Amino acid sequence: MALPPKVTPRAFTRLAEINAASGEGKALRVAVEGGGCSGFLYDIRLDDPAPDDLVLEADGQKVLVDPVSLPFLQNAVIDFSEELIGARFVIDNPNATSSCGCGTSFSL
């Protein structure tokens, strides 16, 4: 059975911090596009909802996934990571068979 992606509380908290600092109420869009060094590339950005988006919501914050990207993100976990090299939203995608070193490109 195909399950939609999950969003961690840490990712929703960071999105709330970003929206509070900017004064806007944007959603986090997670999309998959062709390209990157491994075949597919994650596109993670602030955006407004589209009518056909899957909306994952908690504490007034929204994460959006378009219908084309949804099959590539089944059972994935959207998280926020803070490390010495930087902080970013990350995707733990069980569908990916390999990924590049930067973590934004993957193959199936």
Shape: globular
Radius of gyration, in angstroms, nearest whole number: 13 Å
Percent of residues in beta strands: 35-45%
What order do the strands of the largest sheet run in, or round the barrel if closed? 4-5-2-3-9-8
- Average the pLDDT over all residues and give the rounded result: 86
Distance separating the two termini = 18 Å
Reading the helices and strands in chain order gives EHEEEEEEEE
**Amount of helix:** 10-25%
- Low-pLDDT residue spans: none
Please count the beta strands (DSSP E, at least 2 residues each): 9
Main beta-sheet strand count, sense and barrel state: 6 strands, mixed
- The helix/strand class is mainly beta
Tally of contiguous helical segments: 1
Give a verbal description of the structure.
- The structure is a single chain.
- By secondary structure, this protein is mainly β.
- Helix content is 13%, strand content 44%.
- The protein is built from 1 helix and 9 strands.
- The protein has one helix at 9-22, and strands at 6-7, 27-34, 40-47, 54-58, 61-65, 77-83, 86-92, 98-99, 105-107.
- A 6-stranded mixed beta sheet has the order 4-5-2-3-9-8, with helices on one face. It has a 3-stranded mixed beta sheet with strand order 1-6-7.
- It is globular and about 35 Å long.
- The two termini are 18 Å apart.
- The relative contact order is 0.26.
- The mean pLDDT is 86.
